[in-house]
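Sample A.
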Amino acid sequence: MAQERRHSCRPESRASAKADKNVGAPWVAALPRCDISSTCRRGLRWARPLLALAVLAGLVTSAVAADATAECRIQELRVATDGHPGFTLMPPEQTGVDFTNALSEARAAENQIRLNGSGVALGDTDGDGWCDVFVCALERKVALFRNLGGWRFTNVTATAGLDFPANFSTGATFADVEGDGDLDLLINGIGTGTRLFLNDGHGHFAESENSGLIRRHGATTSALADIDGDGFLDLYVANYRTNTVRTTGFALLNVGGRRMIPPQERGRLELTPQGRVLEHGEPHFLYRNDRQGRFRAASWTDGTFLDEEGRPLAGPPHDWGLTAAFRDLNGDGAPDLYVCNDFHSPDRIWLNDGHGHFLAIPRLAVRHTATFSMAADFADVDRDGHDDILVSDMTSRRHGRRLMQIAGMDPYEISIGVFDDRPQLDRTVLQWNRGDGTYAEVATYAGLENSEWNWSVIFLDVDLDGFEDLLAATGHMFDPQDIDAQARIAAKGPYPQSMIPKKLLMLPPLAQAKLAFRNRGNLTFAECGKAWGFDQVGVSQGMALADLDNDGDLDVVVNNLNGALGIYRNGATAPRLAVRLKGRPPNTAGIGARIVITGGPVMQSQEMMCGGRYLSCDDTLRTFAAGSLDRRLGVKVIWRSGKQSVVAEARPNCLYEIFEPAASAEEELGSPSTKPVAPVDVPPPIFQDVSELLNHGHHEEPFNDFGRQPLLPRRLSQLGPGVSWFDLDGDGWEDLIVGSGKGGQLAVFRSNGQGGFKRLNEPPWNQAVTRDQTTVLGWNGAGGTPGLFVGFANYEDALAAGGAVRQYAAGQPQVSDAIAATPSSAGPLAMADYDGDGPLDFFVGGRSLPGRYPEPAQSQLWRQQGGRWVLDAENTGQLVNVGMVSGAVWTDLDGDGWPELVLACEWGPVRVFHNDRGRLRETTAELGLAAYLGWWNGVTTADFDGDGRLDILASNWGLNTEYRATKESPCRLYYGDFDGSGTINMVETSRDETSATEVPHRNLDTMAAALSYLRERFATHADYGRATVADLLGPVLSKARRVEAHTLASTLFLNRTNRFVAVPLPREAQFATAFGVCVGDFDGDGHEDVFLSQNFFATQTKSPRCDAGRGLWLQGDGQGGFRAVPGQESGVRVYGEQRGAAVCDYDHDGRVDLVVTQNGAASRLFRNAGAKPGLRVRLAGPPANPAGVGATIRLQFGDRFGPAREIHAGSGYWSQDSAVQVMGMPVAPTHVQVRWPGGKITEGAISADAKEISIQATGQIERVR
């Protein structure tokens, strides 16, 4: 092993400056070295000026923390001032690079694996300070181009010892595998496995004859990292296949009428229960470096790799590997491993224990992956301090082409209650890091889900604004996803064995423009390839980054199939800071180190990686945005060894070469680093999961919604259950009631008064229900007898018989119909005394018309008169046109004591009906709410800005689904009897950005299954892909009815007396469809918080499920703003399809607890253990309304009021919160004010040490405890 070369602490001499002339600008000076063992360790802080060379205009000063002082060299960069963000494609005539990765049609047809192309490796092979370029090739020879500076290169392949046939080489990686300070070369190939070429230190290579690498299989991408902490770089090689049955064909055996895989093909081919033949890929290789520059293949079955449960694997996975990359995903300092696999092979994500043993990531950590995973890259996309993961797929950005692409994703079969599976989606995925080892997939929110046939992706801050942008290499020699072409080819079959390879040549080409996406800084991206000069059309595959002109920004090299090598000069002029690491041998490039930059426009971080690009490898230099020239930046390096280096006051437009601190004696001997990660003091979460107190699961039976209406956007049969907190036995302790699906039982959990529950199993609670239950409401009937009203949906049986609302009474074994069913299926229920006569009245929301979606459903209002329910025909008439109602709440928006009715509507707005002393009139438009048409689910009200007025908060579909909607480009649905069959059909539409026309959302196969005449109208999928809605429906369009939505964000509407101002909730609230909405001061700070239940899986069979939520606490700031509280902080992590949610202080400790239901899965109960206790307030209303439903409570703190809190009977999504309120007390309250139904206001003083009070309708306040 070569000895590390020490750099002088003195200013460079003229001789040394001259020796470095090729670097582009002389080194400034070396910082005085401060070893970890020196006196600086005792806490001394110091700053010492750097002596500048005469060529520099000023003096560079750096102050560093004493316990991590960095030894570094600084080079001033020559940065152009007359450029712009983006790239210039350098012509071969200027660069001298004459290279094309050629592949003829004949050689492609011989073996389709060759179509995956080749990559590029970048690095300084000869140590002259300029980054050189190595390119792999398929039919021609590989090539090495030495960088001469000034954008000139020369071919040195022969003199470098690399002049040999390419043999269909795929990937290449430069790495110092021996630890001697120079770059060795790894080359992968189809059928040749992996080859190692050792560098003599001067750019001359010789193949290692005893590398230990396996010289077979179809090797693709290599990645290197020090997996076990011994300092040496270990190697992972992803394998694909050497050939495929797509080229060779295959034959099955017929044994007794059964199709079987021939014995010689077992392991390679698999016959699925559905009759499909799957071809598997090849085992991959993990090689451990033996510290002598040789490798030893690790076993897949000896415990090196463990499954999610920690069990050794039974055998090596046979995957279609395209890319593998090492990256520290969980922040423990050890390189983890992400492997991108094609086709049905799942992506593999392995977490490293720091000693080279890998555990599969937990099932719930990643909810779904891409189907055709091609490449991965990592970046802190939103600069929240956590690395996110992007994996590319091949879905087109053009709507018309997407409609003619073959889907690889199997139809998603709904398995009710199953949420720990990991389906594959036919699109690019962006895994947003939550910071606790789990990810929310947010590519559609970010605008990155469709990125064409995308071989390679790279995060790069192109415009140097501090946020990493994205580049994508695209295209294919042929288009195997063209449905029409595949149909034409199949129609000409069957083919003899000799003709099977030639089927490939019948496919059309797929040349595509490369893509560039600008990071807007808010987790969304905008495509700007043309503006940035990165939109050339062709077939681009391997891609890598390096600073080819030594100006400190990163240029791009792309290996194009049958096209000239693409060399792109980065034209950025913004200030930058470049960092190169000098690690201690054997990890001389600091692979695995994390670099953190502060003081720039935002905090930035990157990790030094080796390989891991699709078939390619970057140079080991990282660039960061400086913001402006007058800034002084902080640089922190956390090395793989665990040591740290710090540079303070770093100057923009400089390259800092930072040296790893001295090793301990143990490390000098090459012992693995076992330095533990420092423990982080993390406070306990606010909520504790105590779901075992219930041990309850919601019962949901399957129903085929699409058998009745094939073109439904989504299932309507899996919308429950609701949940309620209500003192059912009158003992002063709230009980818990959870609705059921058909065939299950209403679940009633009686509180034992000690924080526990017992489920009641006697009649009527043990009766099986005959329909899905919706909302559950508790109420006190005649004589104060407690009971329950439960909504029953007739959506599945479509019968206008039985009860829409059924009544359960404690002690009564029979369940009675309170309100008769109608043709509309019931959904939300809400109660209030809206006519001012004392007893509570009823709203019954019409959720849908069975079999006639999206026709308006009928909602009703019922008054209580003489102990029975009477339809309020006049006010019900006001509800004729409200549409499909998902959520409802009665709330006094104008403070006059009369509750308004607020409805969350699908394909409509959040509607408000003003209450004029018992007469309702819709004022949605007057209040400015008609402009927000959405797919609203739940709704509630609270005083979020502390002004005493009740604001509206409504849950919506979110911004992270396949649907995009704006006012300019709404989602629309045309419906009617299009084919004269008497059934309601529908066409979902969206706006095609390219043609600016309204086009069908779903593909021809899906549409024609319901509207068979479309097969006659559109002969091909291409024809259909060009069709507008007018083309699709023809004359029927003029008769079709239409609904639309253009607001899909869950939204807060702030009450401004005579109008509402819309404020979208934080982005985390938009990552998933939201249902339940409940309000409470969860942390006791005196501000109203919100909980949202999230997720929806019951989509169309080819539509991705919405699974990026796990329940969300939004912490209010008292001014109408919210902070999304991560699950590791809140303690709430629910991964299934959440529906109803409700709050209650069930253990009477003054903290708001939470229950969340899941469709077909366990109900989750969370005890609040971390909030500052609040004041429990119980209202004692009149006999007809003993809980004081409709009253508003407000605490007073001296001369300041807290937020207003209203008591609801039915709110959020099909749920009911406890009537006993827990009011936050940032300080001790002095008074309490209550506005009772009807407008009467009472006030009274509160004892300073009161924990719970009861307030009579007369205003009398009783201290309970």
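Sample B.
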Amino acid sequence: MAMRIPKILFLFFTFLFIFSCNSFESKKKTSDAETLFTLIPSEQTKIKFSNNVIQDNNFNCVRYMYALNGGGVAVGDINNDGLQDVYFTSNQESNKLYLNKGNFEFEDITESANVADNIGWTTGTSMIDINNDGWLDIYVCKSASLESSEWRKNKLYINQKDGTFKEEAHAFGLDNDGFSIQSYFFDYDKDGDLDMYLVNHRVDFENTLRIEQKEKQKKFPETSDHLFRNDGNTFADVTEEAKLVNKAWGLSASIGDFNNDGWPDIYVANDYIMPDFLYINNQDGTFSNQLNTRFKHISYNSMGSDFADINNDFFPDLMVLEMSAEDHIRSKENMPSMNTQGFEKIINANYNHPYMANVLQLNNVNGTFSDIGQLTGMSKTDWSWAPLIADFDNDGHKDVFITNGIDRDFSNQDYVRKVKSNLDEKVHMTVLDVVNMMPSEKLANYSYKNNGDLSFENSTKSWGLDKKVNSNGVAYADLDNDGDLDLIVNNMSDIASIYKNNSVGNFINIKLIGTDKNKNAIGSKVKIFTDETKQYQELYTTRGYQSCVTNVLNFGLGEEDEIKKIEVVWDNGLVSIVENTKANQTVELNIKDAVSTAPIVNVNSNFTKINPADLGMNFTHQENVFDDFLKQVLLPQKLSQQGPALSIGDVNKDGLDDFYVGGAQGQSGKLYLQNRSGKFDVSVQADFEKDKSFEDNGSLFFDANNDGYLDLYVTSGGYELAENSPLLQDRLYLNDKKGKFIKTAVLPKMLSNTKAVKAIDFDNDGDLDLAIGGHSISGKYPLFSKSYFLMNDKGVFKDVTATVALEFSKIGIVNDFIFSDYDNDGAKDLIVVGEWMPITVLKNTKGQFKIINTPQFKNTEGWWNTISEVDIDKDGDLDYFFGNLGGNNKFHPSVEKPLHIYGNNFDNNSTYDMVLSKLYKTNLVPVRGKECSTQQNSFVSKKMPTFKSFAKSSLADIYGEKELKASYHKQVYQFKSGYALNNGKGSFTFKELPNTAQIGPTMSFVFADVNKDGYQDVIGVGGIYESEVETIRYDSNIGYILLGDSKGNLKPYKDINFYNGENAKQMKKIQIKGKQHLLIANNNALVSLFSILK
């Protein structure tokens, strides 16, 4: 291969020279515009199109709930003059085709081109060269005409090359009469031509909340999606043989390779209760829905979608939109509650975990995805339709544009209840009366600038996109050939918006010329490499919602003026490589010059995942079923799922690592002994079995009686237990040196819910004493249990907390702590982390532990899970790593806008109440909604009878100023995980971990030299799958690696084999046959095991 590359490059340099006369070149752009986008007046564009929907008693959004879903837009060069033309769809009136005349002036040629299509109801549209004659054709989807299948037949306008089109859908076999939303063209069978996937939708809107089993559904061709195979001059419906017959309210699809096998797959975004579909291409003409094995959770009411690479790792990521409002008042007025029982029914029906929020599914490179929507701040954009992922500011990072708004808020909860009340009271209403009862409000679209580190900033206003207008379909294209992407938006009841892009960043445009069976090379994959970055795009033009973007690929380059390499993997697998290309031009690449060279894909694989059962490590944690929310409805997450505990140690002194893993209530913990073959045998322990009614929250191997053998301490807890239950008593099992662990009675009475435990000789008498962290009080969150210092008095442990560490006893909800000499004075101090508390240092002064003021840890109140120590920068002192909830959450607290919690018995009954609160404008308001707040305290609905009154009320309005002042009150400012570099003399520099470590909670750290450069690297895992059902469960952290260096810097590192898709609670190093491994204890799942390559 090395001998052929120069010849290949020579061919391409020759090719580029030949095409140079047709290439567009420019110098670096300049602009004096105040915003990135400028809305061009319709007087200049001559575009007068407006999608107007007239409702009456026969047709309206009550009887046909998709009446206000809007129309689409397709962009392409229909006359091959080098300018992108525009086609808008109108639901009830004539579609419009506009010819681009240059300088943002367009000519309406709809009538002369014969593409009006003003009969029936029109939805999505695509531009595609369906007959491969070099001229773009137009496909149009029809829907809604309940009484006329003829009006629902989709249209295909064939370009006659003279400015006119001829409708020939029937001749091509594509005049489907279903309820269609959009068409997607791609080569699913890899025979070289383009096939079509058609998204259709159900019309039985009365069943939108009904759970259905797929095998029991009665299917109809009009409401099922369809796959049409291209057989040359016509298309054949192969839906059944492809195993794609379905029944859902599909609103969009995204095409791409979701499992990295080189074959295109189909993701379908479905509205209402039906989960989305991920149809994986089986490479034999059939597809299989693998949604549940590749996605941890999805959006509930899925709408528009897009599939593109947001982090420049060459693997596309998926965005799917929903309807949750960012604004507090709109969110409390419009969004229905989800109760625990209803959510569990959905899960038990084998549906995926659905949440009412946008999702941005980050590609994990191994065929699975993790949602980072909340981390990016893009999870709530109101009634959203189309997401488009593209580099709008030409800085080399793909941004996001989202259309937003609906003409009538029929999810408004007061409206829903008013209609029900009128029906119950037999108040006469026409259907139009019901429609007119719905609130109506225009909303601004959203845009987000990509910062290049998995973070985005809301750029809607700064980019000039904050006009309030209800928008639906949108497409991007370089309308003025200046090298950036302009926006074309189809608005409801408003003139379409044309936004000129004023970017001044450098760029490269790439136009692909494909085979005679796929002229525009749809499905091709393009990579570009520069000195500073690398980028990736796949050429599929149907994106977002009901719309189709340009087929010219645009790459922003920022300040860089040269592309080192362009690599095209064509749709047929051939490869083209071009090197050293100047910026600011349009380059045409032709498949005729491609060669059979496989692209090089480099992935890191320093880990090997091992099936633990193969080594006899067959422990599966079995969480007992308990609904914590029956005790406190407003809990942010369950507190009964803290385990399993995990401890590593050589308990039989054979030089091999053994381990203990704790059980849930009703399940005994297990001790696994390693044998010489590197496998493990379960050591049957009678006392463990006797104590299976206890829940093991934490554990510790230590030598309690100084006999040279490790004994076992287990902390007990469980939110299901009553306060002061005897099952809260911790346990100590002594090792009899013969393989048995015997429960002892040497502990004081400790009926606290405990979790963390550590051993230290704090009285310097030669034996190990203990410290135990108290957790929450059952049924009284956020109140905390007592924490303890236990002195070892010849094997009997005595509570000396009051004399040794009084402040520790009431320090808070402790999740972890560490004894460490942070100030290098020779005495080990205590650093404690937990929920609703700051990182807290208790200095050890002659065996007395007292809280000291540590300025670097000011305002670090968080939901901290773990703390670990390591000399990460190799400067001779210990640095500290702190695992928190992470940045991928809905709260995003800060010093300016903390998250509050109030605890009190607000209604003076038998239950302890708690309420979460945040700052909205100048007032504290409840985080949760009216219905669940009323379930906790019935007086809420009496004081605030409407959702509007609740939405506009402050926390004090609802609960009372006096009652709040008398409440237990805490606040948090920081949810991101971080680390403290030790500067010496008790001084630290606190830093947040990179965003790859903020994707989910960090419950446990391990340090190892992963890349063998001599520096310790950071490995983190964690999950909290047990969140309340209106909070997206924290399941996105599948394990991360951060590479260390001599200066304490941390660099994200992706290893394709390090993937833990479970609810991880603990991770420890374990040596197996002399080789380093990671053992992970997962809640309600099998343990995970990874080996680290030497």
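B remarks: The first helix runs from residue 5 to 19. The first strand starts at residue 24 and ends at 25.
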